[in-house]
């Protein structure tokens, strides 16, 4: 039970002290021994004062545990001081045991046996010893598991800085989420084999930006290039690498800094729309350790960014939201830097242009994993089914002519013509009003659940006229709503976003037209409402992702209740298949990479789904209105999330058990091993 473990009862002032309690003392003795263990115990011998790492007192024995980290015990003066200190303690009849960092990490079982042998001499301390102890191999003894990774040699001149060599020595992975650390270790193993084309399939909300920054610091030798699909994500990476901005991932991660004791990498942020590509010089590029840009700026070997760089100028490439990859741009990019290692990141590699990305998936973190770990909200879908068989829309032309659009197929066809999309509206407003009533009910629940955070709603519309129609109906239902579209000026867009995004703003909802897409992050969004069809699953998933991240607030942390994202949608828009794909997460991966393959493979034929496949076969369904009208479903039930969490836990324990068996002459059973890990370490 939490609170009875030795790791909870005994605090350590250093990583090494904590590791001793977790991996040696916890394996050797029961939690009751904590009453006899005194951390940082002061002792005075003549004119010298010492603080003992741990003093363990029994009825006869006084056992001193000294922990030797190489950093503080490697000099000649430290060597002499340690011997004088130990002799002083022996003179007080203390028994001294010394454990080094390497001994605990590499010879854990031997350390446990040595400690037990000394404690057994005291009749009181002997009562706390665990017979036939299990000593698992430590899985967190190296605070930087990438320390053993050495990138391939680079052709570096004597004048070039060794920034990344120094950064790797300061890189601290502890502040990162577990999934980010696991992805980095998987990448390290992949690159160490000499492979270069890696992909990480990371759920929306898992923290791909922090992963991209950490991977850049860990695997770059000379210079990194980060490529994003547009300004929003490019700005996210620019902020993440800027030490002068609050919220960057270098110094202000939850739990501590990613880089401590050294400067941030020199970063050059470029954008073709702002003219910086044309004005930047090759010298400026070579002075940068990291270049951040979007794929529109890449150009070719004759113009644009690629024309200013030579093949060996870049040795690590990060591509975020790789499902939006512009095939020709990325072909040119990979061809320009053929020896550079690549990291492609996306929640879903399904491309809107009907092609698949090619890469080797080295790590996969599903939406259900993110929910189980508390990084993503539970998705609660509300399906409105209209009475009519097919929904009608119409286009109103300037001359007064009305062009009817009937059904999803016709609507998807119209989506290819921006002139028509801009003028389309729903013929009957009753379905919008019915959807709006569901949204209003969701907001009542979310306001209570998220207080004091103000919940927001994100609508997606067909075109400007449709957006204005939705906003008008939302305001009539008491939901303060504005619109966001490309015909607005930059100042109007900024003002509208501020009213929506800030807690002091007065907009509770916004209807947007492809304005707040991939990379946009506002956890306060508590409901997403697609009022348009999505031919691409990736586009649909990105809309859901805008509100999937959990809200971090002290008041909500105290309640410790699961958070939900309400997805309210019109049943005739054909989104059920996308929801089923999201639940099964079966179209997320790129195609395995092949030699000299840059990612332009045709879509494989996966075949039709089984006849009569139940779309919501194992979802929890609750009728919230009259039968056949509105239906609420949880994409993943509480039981499914818990089952998935247990699956991942057992898989992790199986890996640790394998390491334990490999280093133990007479290993205990897996069940016994699991029981010890859970009781001692949680």
Q: Please identify which CATH superfamily of the largest domain we are dealing with.
A: P-loop containing nucleotide triphosphate hydrolases
- Tell me, what's the shape? elongated
CATH topology of the largest domain: Rossmann fold
> What is the mean pLDDT?
79
Biggest sheet record? 8 strands, mixed
Give the tally of structural domains.
4
CATH class of the largest domain: Alpha Beta
Q: Roughly how many Å is the radius of gyration? A: 29 Å
Structural class call reads alpha/beta
What is the CATH-assigned architecture of the largest domain? 3-Layer(aba) Sandwich
**Proportion of beta-strand residues:** 15-25%
Alpha-carbon distance between the termini? 8 Å
Question: What percentage of residues falls in helices of 4 or more residues?
Answer: 25-40%
The total strand number stands at: 24
Count of helical stretches: 25
**Order of strands side by side in the largest beta sheet?**
18-19-17-20-21-13-24-23
- Low-confidence stretches are 70-74, 595-628
């Amino acid at each position: 039970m939490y609170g009875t473990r030795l790791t909870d009862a005994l605090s350590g002032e250093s990583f090494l002290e904590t590791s001793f309690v977790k991996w040696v003392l916890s394996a050797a003795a029961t939690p009751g021994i904590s009453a006899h263990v005194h951390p940082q115990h002061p002792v005075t011998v003549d004119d010298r004062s010492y603080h003992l790492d741990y003093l363990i007192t029994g009825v006869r024995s006084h056992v001193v545990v000294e922990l030797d980290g190489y950093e503080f015990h490697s000099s000649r003066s430290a060597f002499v001081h340690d011997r004088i200190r130990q002799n002083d303690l022996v003179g007080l009849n203390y028994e001294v045991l010394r454990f080094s960092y390497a001994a605990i990490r590499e010879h854990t079982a031997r350390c446990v046996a040595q400690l037990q042998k000394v404690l057994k001499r005291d009749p009181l301390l002997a009562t706390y010893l665990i017979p036939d102890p299990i000593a698992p191999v430590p899985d967190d003894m190296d605070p930087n598991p990438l320390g053993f990774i050495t990138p391939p040699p680079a052709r570096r001149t004597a004048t070039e800085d060794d920034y990344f060599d120094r950064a790797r020595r300061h890189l601290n992975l502890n502040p990162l989420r577990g999934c980010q650390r696991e992805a980095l270790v998987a990448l390290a193993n992949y690159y160490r084999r000499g492979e270069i084309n890696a992909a990480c399939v990371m759920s929306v909300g898992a923290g791909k930006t922090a992963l991209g920054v950490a991977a850049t610091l860990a695997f770059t030798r000379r210079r990194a290039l980060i490529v994003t699909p547009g300004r929003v994500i490019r700005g996210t990476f620019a902020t993440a690498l800027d030490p002068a901005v609050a919220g960057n991932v270098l110094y202000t991660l939850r739990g501590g800094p990613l880089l401590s004791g050294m400067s941030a990498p020199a970063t050059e942020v470029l954008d073709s729309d702002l003219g910086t590509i044309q004005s930047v010089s090759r010298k400026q590029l070579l002075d940068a350790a990291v270049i951040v840009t979007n794929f529109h700026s890449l150009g070719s070997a004759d113009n644009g960014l690629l024309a200013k760089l030579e093949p060996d100028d870049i040795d690590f490439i990060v591509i975020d939201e790789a499902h939006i990859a512009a095939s020709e741009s990325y072909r040119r990019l990979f061809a320009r830097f053929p020896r550079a290692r690549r990291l492609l990141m996306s929640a879903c590699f399904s491309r809107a242009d009907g092609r698949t990305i090619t890469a080797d998936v080295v790590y996969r973190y599903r939406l259900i994993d993110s929910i189980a770990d508390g990084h993503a909200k539970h998705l609660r879908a509300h399906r409105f089914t209209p009475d009519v068989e097919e929904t009608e829309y119409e286009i109103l032309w300037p001359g007064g002519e009305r062009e009817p659009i009937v059904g999803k197929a016709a609507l998807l066809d119209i989506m290819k013509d921006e002139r028509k999309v801009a003028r389309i509206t729903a013929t009957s407003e009753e379905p919008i009003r019915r959807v709006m009533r569901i949204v209003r009910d969701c907001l009542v629940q979310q306001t209570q659940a998220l207080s004091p955070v103000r919940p927001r709603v994100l609508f997606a519309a067909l075109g400007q006229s449709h957006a204005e129609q939705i906003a008008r109906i939302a305001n009539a239902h008491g939901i303060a709503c504005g619109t966001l579209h490309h015909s607005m000026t930059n100042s109007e867009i900024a003002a509208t976003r501020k009213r929506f995004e800030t807690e002091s703003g007065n907009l509770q909802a916004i209807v947007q037209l492809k304005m707040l897409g991939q990379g946009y992050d506002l956890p306060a969004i508590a409901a997403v409402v697609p009022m348009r069809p999505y031919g691409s699953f990736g586009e649909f998933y990105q809309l859901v992702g805008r509100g999937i991240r959990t809200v971090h607030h002290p008041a909500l942390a105290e309640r410790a209740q699961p958070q939900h994202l309400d997805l309210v949608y019109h049943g005739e828009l054909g989104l059920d298949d996308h929801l089923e794909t999201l639940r099964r997460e079966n179209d997320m991966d790129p195609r395995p990479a092949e030699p000299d393959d840059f990612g332009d493979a045709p879509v494989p034929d996966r075949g039709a789904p089984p006849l009569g496949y139940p779309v919501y076969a194992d979802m929890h369904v609750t009728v919230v209105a009259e039968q056949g009208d509105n239906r609420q479903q949880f994409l993943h039930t509480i039981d499914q999330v818990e089952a998935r969490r247990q699956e991942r836990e057992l898989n992790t324990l199986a890996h640790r058990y394998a390491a334990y068996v490999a280093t133990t002459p007479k290993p205990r059973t897996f069940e016994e091993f699991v029981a010890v890990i859970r009781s001692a370490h949680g």
